[in-house]
Design brief:
- With 262 residues, the chain is an alpha+beta fold.
- The chain folds into two domains: 2-103, Pseudouridine synthase I, catalytic domain, N-terminal subdomain (Alpha-Beta Plaits, 2-Layer Sandwich), CATH 3.30.70; 106-238, 2-Layer Sandwich (Alpha-Beta Plaits), CATH 3.30.70.
- The chain contains five helices and ten strands; from the N terminus they run E-H-E-E-H-E-E-E-H-E-E-E-H-H-E.
- Strands 1, 2, 3, 4, 5, 6, 7, 8, 9 and 10 form a ten-stranded mixed β-sheet that branches.
- It is globular, with a radius of gyration of 19 Å.
Length: 262
């Protein structure tokens, strides 16, 4: 039986999604928790492997098992065995041809910047702090050129393993609410560090350290060494993963996003 589930987690205490030999990972704890419920080894595939310190409000994953359990039991049993900063939101049967990663048609991320002189207290490790003033209008102006299908070589990590640097960005918005600047980005898929590298470039422009045209110049260069600083992971959230309607996969409801992501 193939089963699909939705997860939320704080990535602060973990080395990312992917299981590693000598570091704590989200995948490790999810697999161990589900294995206890199944009373057999469970291997989980996710929609997007988040990096160290990156959070998720709606990660999607699937696994296969011959253990017969009620869907409710996977949620309750899994959460009992998970740390408090990882939670299974829902579980349901999946079609045989469903794959959490390869069936996905889109993913969206949110990058949250606390833009004030005082460092965060309550939101420490939940937002990226920038004490220097950011001009969100210049950031939006410079972001516009990144919408569409492009070669994002300059915006991916040097060690990115994707076969192609081409991605299609469907939405890239920069908005301010009080002291908070929020970058929302949606694409068919993302490269390693792509969102953080875009955020780094936009923040440099927002601080006035580079002209608005710099984002286009970086894109055209197709050279990561010219791409600027990789922004911190603290403020990055995987928000949603979308699939064809036939799979009937839930999307994250706005009322679940709480004040930090409004």
């Amino acid at each position: 039986m193939k089963i699909v589930l939705g997860l939320e987690y704080s990535g602060t205490q973990y080395s990312g999604w992917q299981r590693q030999k000598h570091a704590r990972s989200i995948q490790q704890y999810v697999e161990d928790a589900l294995s206890r419920v199944a009373d057999q080894t469970v291997k989980v595939q996710c929609a997007g492997r988040t990096d160290t310190g990156v959070h998720a409000l709606h990660q999607v994953a699937h696994f296969e098992t011959d253990a017969v359990r009620e869907m409710r039991s996977w949620v309750l049993g899994g959460n009992v065995n998970l740390p408090q900063d990882i939670s299974i939101l829902w579980v349901r049967p999946a079609a045989d041809d469903f794959h959490a990663r390869y069936s996905a048609t889109g993913r969206s991320y949110r990058y949250i910047i606390l833009n004030r002189s005082a460092r965060p207290g309550i939101y420490n490790h939940r937002v990226t702090w920038e004490c220097r003033s950011l001009d969100e209008h210049k950031m939006q102006q410079s972001a516009d050129c990144l919408v569409g299908e492009h070669d994002f070589t300059s915006y991916r990590a040097v060690d990115c393993q994707s076969n192609s640097p081409v991605r299609r960005v469907r939405r890239l918005d920069v908005n301010r609410t009080g002291d908070t600047v929020i970058i929302n980005i949606e694409a068919n898929a993302f490269l390693h560090h792509m969102v953080r590298n875009i955020a780094g470039v936009l923040m440099e422009i927002g601080m006035g350290k580079a002209p608005v045209e710099w984002s286009q110049q970086v894109l055209d260069a197709r050279d990561r060494t010219l791409g600027g600083v990789t922004a911190a992971p603290d403020g990055l959230y995987l928000m949603n993963v979308t699939y064809p309607e036939k799979f009937n996969i839930p999307v994250l409801a706005e009322f679940n996003l709480l004040a930090v992501t409004q």
